[in-house]
């Protein structure tokens, strides 16, 4: 279990005002309808006027929240105040209508559950403790509902304890679920935001390359003009060595600038053709070569049965995805990595094998989820198996790929299988 999910702080935790207002209106309306049905339809007498007063003050606080609180997102302090008020208000209402034996007494746990989903761990614990205290009081102190056989309420203590215990168990379970659910939702949101950042950066780099090429093309003509004018000036000056020396310097620097711009333009042309279309085998070779430059481990590209020799679009998604999984193999392997490319009319498949510790049993079924953790010592000391794998998997799947993760490859370590249907690249 990720403790960071449990021990959340007040920072960046808030509750939408409209959500809380709507929930409180629903609760107030439900309370009003319930007491009227019980009093007028079921003919059970209880302090209905006092109950109206309690509900009325709940309505006033909600109107204050809706029209006087100007912020749309309630911070932990504000939200906890209104939830605490709801807890007290409902406890008073339950005291007037049978205490813990009221069928609606379980609703007392709702403020703590709302807190577990949106607010800090400290606020949730505080509200849970207060809720438990009120439930205990309501199991001993309450106004029984007249009209019902009073012997019903003279139940053994163990029965009262059972009702109290069941509600408290529900409180703990639902609060824990709320904390875990909100934590996982937040993590997924963060992971998706990082995914968008990766894609945006890749496209930004491409855009910068295009701008550089355009600038090189635009500056070429002015530099050529300067060079021509400088040469003409040199002819006219003739024997003036001082000025002639300066003009020579001008001509040489202009020539240098032109050469630099030509290189930029040439590089961009090469990159453009490379980015747009590339054989999958060549792309893998390029990625593997980049890792060979920084790692002493043996990385082999095996091309046993590549029948298609298909060209693909060199998209940032495919590049990042393949680099991530090959990089993981390099990171976790002992000394050897094999990347096997196979293709036929039905499937294009890449297998990434390594001789590392393999994928642990405790995470094999959740590989690709963000922020996963393993009990394995080999993997716990390294990063990159959580968010990076999630990003790589998501990016490749957006390009039509299907991914499989297996514990043991032919080298004894992990095996990642990435496959496409040839139809995925028919438009290339």
Secondary-structure class? alpha+beta
The largest sheet is: 5 strands, mixed
CA radius of gyration is 35 Å
Strands of the widest sheet, in order across it, are 4-6-7-9-8
Q: H/E element string?
A: HEHHEHHHHHEHEEHEEHHEE
Give a quick set of tags describing it.
Heat Shock Protein 90, five-stranded mixed β-sheet, Helix Hairpins, disordered N terminus, alpha+beta, 428 residues, 9 strands, 3 domains
What does this structure look like?
By secondary structure, this protein is an alpha+beta fold. The protein starts with a helix and ends in an 8-residue tail after the last strand. 61% of the residues lie in helices and 11% in strands. It has helices spanning 3-6, 17-41, 48-67, 76-96, 110-118, 121-138, 157-237, 241-276, 280-292, 316-332, 377-380, 387-398; strands at residues 14-16, 73-75, 278-279, 298-306, 311-312, 336-343, 348-354, 402-406, 415-420. The chain folds into 3 domains: 3-154, no CATH class; 196-275, Helix Hairpins (Orthogonal Bundle), CATH 1.10.287; 279-425, Histidine kinase-like ATPase, C-terminal domain (Heat Shock Protein 90, 2-Layer Sandwich).
